Every structure is written in structure tokens, then in C-alpha cells.
Amino acid sequence: MSRLPPTLAAPALALLALTAWPLLSGSETLVFRDVLTSHLPMKCAQAESLRAGAIASIDPARAGGQPLLGNPNALPLYPTNGLYLITEPLHALNLHVALHWLLAVWSAAWLGRAWGLRRAAAWCTGLVYATGGYVLSLLNLYNLVAVAAWAPALVAAVLDSATIVDSRRRAAARWVAVAVLWALLLAAGDPMSALVALALAVGALSVRPPAARPYIEQADTAQASAALRVPGRPRIAGRLAAALAAGTLLVAPMWIEMLRILPSSERAGRTSDAEAILTQSFEPRALIDWIVPLFFGEPGFAFWGQPWLGGHEPLLVSLAPGLVGLAMGVVGLRSRRPAARWALAAVAAGAFAALGRWNPLVVGLAELPGAALLRYPVKAWLAVAVGGALLAGLGFERLSTRSGRRSAAAILGLAGALSATVWGLLLMLPTGLEQGLRGLSPTFSDVFFAQERLRWMTQSFFATLTAGGALLALALVGRRRFLGYLALLAVAVASQVVLMAPLWTTVSSDALERRDPLFDLLPRSATLVNSIAHPVFGPAPIQLDPATSDLATTTRDFLTFLPPHAAICRGRRLELNPSPEGLDSFYAELVADLMPRLDDAGRVNMLEALGVERLILHRPLVGVDGDDVELLAKRPTAFGFDLRLYALRASVPEVVAVGEIVRAAAFGQALETLAAPHFDPRRAAVLPGDGQRTLGRPGTVTILDARPERLTLEVEAPNPVIVKVRRSWLPIWRATIDGAPVATTIVDASRLGVELPAGRHDVQLWVDRRPVWFGAGLSFLAALGLALTVARAGGRSHR
What we know:
Blueprint: H1 10-25, E1 28-30, H2 34-51, E2 58-59, E3 66-67, H3 89-114, H4 119-130, H5 133-137, H6 142-161, E4 163-164, H7 168-187, H8 191-207, E5 211-212, H9 221-226, H10 233-250, H11 252-261, H12 266-269, H13 274-277, H14 323-332, H15 338-354, H16 360-366, H17 381-398, H18 402-428, H19 431-438, H20 446-477, H21 481-499, E6 506-508, E7 527-530, H22 551-558, H23 564-568, E8 573-574, H24 586-594, H25 600-610, E9 614-617, E10 629-636, E11 642-648, E12 655-658, E13 660-664, H26 667-675, E14 684-688, E15 693-694, E16 700-707, E17 710-717, E18 721-728, E19 733-737, E20 740-742, E21 745-747, E22 751-756, E23 759-767, H27 770-793
Parallel strand pairs: 4-5, 7-8, 7-9, 13-14
Antiparallel strand pairs: 1-6, 2-3, 9-11, 10-11, 12-18, 13-15, 16-17, 17-23, 18-22, 19-20, 19-23, 21-22
């Protein structure tokens, strides 16, 4: 094994790079789930602020301005944000995903080297990890794919830092690398996955004692360790704690801002029960996916396995490691090295936590206060993926022995026989089996069932070919070792690329550039609600036949409905479009949740109070006064209904001063008042209070300066008035009246407002960025401290 050159992984790496090339080049784009609906709109807003030379605290294009810097899910401080300065947002987003996909190979390979694997086996670890179902399922999750890419590297860096080297500067540089990698994991925006990676690193230190670097070619490793001063565990623990603290401070602005907005966020304001927290758990029934890949349907509209997988489409569509990776992982279990013990413990612990609602202990933990901040136990599968990949690398090394090859051949032969049996049963399809398969889902029509049967047969056939190709490669290992190993890695990657291709469904990037005819009727910076994407007027009557509607084709059709990214990335603003991670304003999300309970007239009144100027709707409005709305255009769609664009005539302007004030004692009362037909949001406002009503004349407002995070106003008030702004209330807004600080207030259920006395006043509203600058100072000090650590270490020996 030590004589094998690392170039044997070159064909497999080239195949993976070729698969990712459409994303790297920008010719195609990912379309499944969050990548377009959530992350691209946020990244468009970030790109605009970065090009203006700032890091925005709020996203002005979403729901009146929602948290951006304080939303880790938006990756506001992540290094790939620099891509948005040199290319278009869509291309930069796909570059981020594709680069981290390839980076995962190197990261896991580094982990293999840190545990003492030879280079060839380390590359096997990286390839198995990057082509496993876990990583491939993350290609539609912009933040989680970054965490998956860096997690193995953090473990490797911690192991390397606890290894003896011949210079203090090199030792210091390694601890600096730990700090930087931890900062990258935090900046990637998923705290739970980052904690899983940290647990893996700490567990690795507990399994492998500090010693000389295990893969240094030494005649006597023990003698080499004795000649150097080995740091004890307490010293290593102290250095690790210091590195983690420095890494956390490197991204301090994001965490400080998140702590400021968290108390008023949807996640903090809404009570989550254990069932909601455990929604995304690993379903043991999904193991059938390891035999027939994507058994429950391809991601998107043809996925029919919801009733069997918790009643919803899983966050991670597939967790299948691949037949070759699974076979080598089982062989690696026979290794007696510390790496095998750590890997097996990681697999066991990760699976134990990922079981979620199937695990009584995890259910008990989910009922504790604060558990909602760390939801979705299936994210713990990161530990299973990392540990399993390392086991595969260990198994790859054991293939140099006859017993190892024999064990791998037995596993692959069993897997191939099982796949061939499934293929044969599906080909013949006995009556009892057909009835059983049809009973799996009530959505099976005759045509759809026939297509699923054909798809199952195809997947089983390719799985059988994979097992056969791997067996041939194993036979070649015994005679022409280099060619055998090369073929085995190529089969491992090629099989996953073919079988798991639906996990990264793409469409041509040009399809997203098409302009809908209705788009020209939307003024620049117009505020709109798209009821197709956010069904506050009820769900659109979209009838899809899973037998004829694949994800790519249907996505191209949906692009004609002006989806969120198409509007926001072209300078329009969307309302009632909350972000899925729950860090938007609780009040804004509550309004969006309660809107469907109103009738059309109440919904229109509510939209006008929010300042919505345009409405995209899938049906005619019912019971709405024609003086309040105007039908601007109507056009047919491919889904059997007409798309309508309405103009709302009574919407509140950007800033207005009103004298009629209704103080609602409860949120429901405020919503009822706003939806009432007699309520005019241009002349009245609803505030929290005791239920009293105050009458007064409106004031006049002159906007002297209007920016996303700052407003300067001149107000003439004949009596006490409320200045309400078409911005979402957040606790980070500050206000002054004639230079004196005053408190902001929540107006019209979710908007930003300030109470003014009678007279002429100069009013300023701005987002307080002083805590952000304080966080930036902490980041600078942390970076300076890390640089000085390396500089002061010098080149002195440990001797």
C-alpha cells in the first residue's frame, strides 16, 4: 500500500470534477428546495450591499426588512461571499455549492492522513465521504454543505495539533488552523452540525494520545517521540479551548447580532413541542434506500414516501453510502487501530442521536427548555458519514491482504445477489408482491406505478453492475495492484454519480433569466405578494401528475410565476415570505400565518396596511371593492389556471404620520382591526395598548434621506401622531426626535413606528450598528492574536 502513488485517485477525482463542472462553469443551476427559494434571494440582497461596500444588517427586500447579518443561515461573514463581487449571484451560489462538494474530498482525505492512513487510502476516505448520500443530499442546502466540507478537516487539524513536530512555529500554525476551521464552521451557519464536528474532534483526542505524527516515515516512532517533549492532555485541552475561543471571536459580529434579534424571532416566540423538534429524524425504514437507491421516489413532485418517512419529505433525501463504500467500511471494522475504534464510536453515536423520535433518550432531551434551538436530529448523521468514510479508508488498506479482499468480495457478492434478486422479482412481479408495492402509497396510478417499477428495476440493475464491477476490480488488485485500486475507486464514484444523480437536479441557468410578461408591470422597488409562492390566499390549484412531471421540467414552468428569487434579484421587494430557519421577526411571521384565516377583503386590507402595492394571484378576488384594487393583467398558465396581477390602490406609502390611533389589547384584536373594511391604514394606526381609540388629524412627512438602514424625516404634527414606516419592526432599530433618543414601537401588528407630540420635529431612525463594530473589534483582536502566536513562536525546536 505504501508504494501506491496518490495518482490512482485521479480518474475518480476527474469524474467528480466533471460532474460538478456545469455548476462550476455557471451553465446550469441547482433548483431543488432551499437553494432557490431561500438562499438565492438572501444572497442577492447581500451581493447588493457588498458591492456598495457594506455588510448589511437587514435584508430590505424581504418582509419589510428582516435580519441578515444576525441570520447564520444567510452565511453573512463566509469567505465565499467574495464570489458575489466578481460574478452574478446565481453563478456565485452554485460555485459555493460545487466548490464545497469538491472540498469535502480533500477534507476527509486529510482526516485519513491525520489518523495514519496511507495517501491512497486517505483519498479513498475522501471520495467515499463526498459521494455518500449524506453529502449529496446537502447539495440543495447552501449552509449545511459548507459544514459538511469543513467538519472532517477540523478533526484532522485537532489531531495534527496534538502531534509532535520539530518547530514551535509549526505547532502554533496548526492551532491557528484549528481556530480558522472552527470559525469557518460557525460562519457556515448551522450551530448543531458545528457542535457535532467539535464532538468528533474532542472524541478523537480522547482515543489517540498525543504522540509523534503517525505517518512520518521514522525507523522508530517511539524513539522519535522520546526525543521530543510530548505535551500532556491538560496542555492540549487548554490550547484547544484557546483556539476555539479565538475562532468564535473571528465571527463575533454575526453571533452578537444574532443574540440581539433572537428574543424577537419566530424561533424564540413560538412554542415548539418535542414532536416539531424531532420532525426530521432518521427513519429506520429508509434503510431500504441502501438496497434500491431512492426507493421512495426522486426528490420533488414524484416523491411518494412521506407517509413512511414521518409524514413529510426528509431533509436528507438519501443516506446511502454506496455499495463499494459500504463493503470497504465493513472490512474496515476488523482493523484494530485506534482510528477504527474512533470511527465506530462516531458511527454509533451519530446514529443514536439521529434516530430522534425513535430514541426515547433523545425524545426526553427534546422536551427540555431551549431544545428548539437545536432541532432536526438527523443532522447528527454527519458523525455517521465521517466515521463511515474513515472505516472505508481503513478497509481500503486491508484490501492489500488476501483476507481483506476475500471479506470485501463476500460483501459485494451478497449485495450484488440481493440487487439481482430484487431486479428479477420486479421483472416477473408476482401478484402478491405487486399488490404489496401498490399498497405502499395511495398516489400510485397505473402509469405512475409502472414508471416506478421501471425506475426500481433500473436502480437495481445498476446496483448489480456496481457490485460486479467492484468484484472485477478486487480480482485485479491481486494481480495488477495499481490498476485494481484505480478501477475500484472509479467504480465507487461512478456508481454514486449515476444512482444519486437526482439529488442535484439542475436546469439551464438561462431558464432563470427569462422575464415574465407581467414583470414589466412591476415598478422598480415595488412591494408585492406572490400568492403562488406564499399561499396566503389559499393554495393554487396546481395539478401535477407524478408520472409526467419531473422536477426540472416543472421547475422551468414555475419560473414563469415570478418566484421570490426572480423578483428580489431584480430589485423588487416581497412581503409575507418568511425564512425557514425561524430567525425572522416573530410578528411578521405571525401575520403571514394568520392571513389565510381572513376573507379576501380582509386580506386585501391587511396587505394595504403592510404597504403591498402589487398582488400576484391564481384566481379572481372575491368580495373586494373594485375601487381598492385594479386588475392590471391576466395570462394563462400551463397548469390550468389564469395568473392575475392586481394593483392595490390604498396601500400606505413608505412613511406616513397618522393621528387616529387604535390601541389593541391583543394581537388578534390588532389583526381584526387592520382587516376591518372601515380601517384606512393611510389615516390610522394600530398600536399595542389598552383598547382605547384616539382621534386626530394626520401630519405631513418630508423624507430627507432614505436608505435601507437609515431614515431622516421632517414631520409637521398638528396633534400627537404616529409615524409609521414600511419597515418591519426589529429590536435593532433606534430613533431620535429632535436629537433626543426615544423608543420605537410596533405599529400595525409588525411595522416600525415612533410616537411624536404635536409640533415640528426632526426624526431619525437607524439600525444600531455599535454592537456590530464591537464584534468587529473582537474579530480583529482575535486575528491579531493568532498572527502574533505564530510570529512569536519562532523557529525554536521543542527539544
